[in-house]
Amino acid sequence: MPDPGSVADEPHVEPAEDATPSEPRPASADLTPVVGANLRRLRVKRGLSLERLSRSSGVSRAMLSQIELGQSTPTINIVWKIATALGVPFSGLVQSRATGDLSVLRAENAKILASRDGAFSSRALFPFDEPRRVEFYEIRLARGATEHAEAHPPGTVENLVVSAGEIVVEVEGRREALGPGDAIVFHADVAHAYVNAGAVDAVMYLVMTYADSVG
Predict the structure, then answer these.
(1) CATH number of the domain at 108-209, please?
(2) From 52's CA, which of 1, 41, 59, 87 has a CA 20 to 30 Å away?
(3) What is the pTM of this model?
């Protein structure tokens, strides 16, 4: 899944790298303070300065500071870049650290992250309560759109099933066309991409399995 996939960001901060003033807010507003708090906690826990994390993640120091302060909502690609640099699953940055034996995830309260142009969006279908090895997402890709994803942490595996529309998954030079009901499993610790060359928006469900749970 894009993490690295487009994983830029917010108006008024280094627009050439992370955002453009006209782009829509890329993530649910209620995720902004959650991501910021988790970023600071994980960065400090690892003894990383903003400068060092900036170099390893490819996200500007100014943007990292804005995210930590809750002043900038990162896109899915930026969250992925930071998570990869910190060595944590995607959920490690978006979890709210609540606990409970049963969780109901209402559609109207969905936490959604999107690419800069909004063509790719990801809705987490699991509670943000703790680090985990397995994550489950609803993915939407607009017709005519392509989403590029950089390599995830070593050992990461993606299991994707198409619910609606048609897509092409590109992995290490291979291109696999998928339609409704088709599924694919591949190692996602290499660069990969999702392409929607169909006539309608595509809906997919993705299970991501990490080699380790880190938080």
Answers:
(1) 2.60.120.10
(2) 1
(3) 0.59
